[in-house]
Design a protein that fits this description.
Largest sheet: 3 strands, antiparallel
Shape: elongated
Distance between the termini: 12 Å
Order of helices and strands: HEHHEEHHHHEE
Helix content: 55-70%
Number of helices: 7
Structural class: mainly alpha
Strand content: 5-15%
C-alpha cells in the first residue's frame, strides 16, 4: 500500500481539508498505515498537481479558510486499478525480532523488562480496537462497506490478540528457565569471561512481537 492510495481512499469516503485528513488518519487509517502530517500534506500537493484530486471551490472567500479536497475521475481510476493488482504478502522486518536473535549471541540484559513493556503496549492497543468495534460497528451495520471496514479492524484485533497471548507465554517461559537456573532474571549473562551460547542449557531462548498496526 502507498500513502497516495490511502489518501485517495480517505477522500473518496469524505472530502476533507488537509487538517481534517490528518486527524482522520490518526483515528483510522493511521492504525495500519501510519504517516506524519508532513507526509500527508506533501502527497496532497502531488496528487493535486497530477490531476487526481482538486480543491473544492469555496462558497465564500475567507482569510485562513482551509481548502477541502475531492477525488477526480483520474484519481478514482488510479485507486481502482491499484485495488485490482496482485500483491504478495510482505515479510516481517522488525528490529526487535532481530535484537532478540542478536541477544542469543551477545546476551540480553533487561530482556523480560522489554518484553513486558511490549506486552503492555499490545494490551493497550487491543483494548482500543475492541472499544472502536463496539462503538462503530453495532449489529445493525451490515452493508458491504461496513463489513469490509470491520474486517480490517478484526485483522488488527486478531493480530493484537495473538501477540498478547504469545508474549505472555514467552515471558512465562523465560521466567521459568531463570528459576530453574537459579537466576534472578532470564537475561543471557556472561560466564567464565564469555557469553553462554544459544542452546547450551544456560538459558532458554526468548522471542518477541512485531510492531505491525491495522
Amino acid at each position: 500500500m502507498s500513502l497516495p492510495h490511502a489518501i485517495l481512499t480517505a477522500l473518496l469516503e469524505k472530502p476533507s481539508s488537509g487538517l481534517e485528513l490528518t486527524r482522520r488518519f490518526d483515528r483510522s487509517i493511521g492504525y495500519f498505515w501510519p504517516s506524519t502530517h508532513q507526509q500527508i500534506y506533501r502527497e496532497l500537493g502531488k496528487l493535486e498537481r497530477s490531476g487526481r484530486i482538486r480543491a473544492l471551490p469555496a462558497a465564500r472567500t475567507a482569510r485562513g479558510r482551509r481548502k477541502e479536497y475531492e477525488v477526480l475521475p483520474a484519481g478514482r481510476e488510479e485507486l481502482t486499478a491499484w485495488v485490482s493488482l496482485a500483491e504478495d504478502p510482505r515479510p516481517v522486518r522488525d528490529p526487535l525480532l532481530l535484537r532478540m536473535r542478536a541477544a542469543a549471541v551477545v546476551g540480553a540484559p533487561g530482556l523480560t523488562r522489554e518484553l513486558r513493556r511490549h506486552l503492555a503496549l499490545h494490551q493497550e492497543q487491543l483494548a482500543e480496537y475492541l472499544a472502536i468495534e463496539e462503538r462503530d460497528f453495532p449489529p445493525e451495520r451490515t452493508t458491504d462497506e461496513d463489513r469490509l471496514r470491520r474486517l480490517v479492524l478484526r485483522g488488527g484485533i486478531d493480530l493484537e490478540t495473538f501477540w498478547t497471548g504469545w508474549l505472555t507465554t514467552a515471558i512465562a517461559g523465560l521466567d521459568g528457565s531463570a528459576a530453574e537456573d537459579g537466576a534472578g532474571s532470564p537475561d543471557v549473562t556472561s560466564t567464565g569471561g564469555g557469553t553462554a551460547p544459544p542452546g547450551s542449557g544456560e538459558h532458554g531462548p526468548g522471542t518477541v512481537r512485531t510492531e505491525d498496526n491495522p
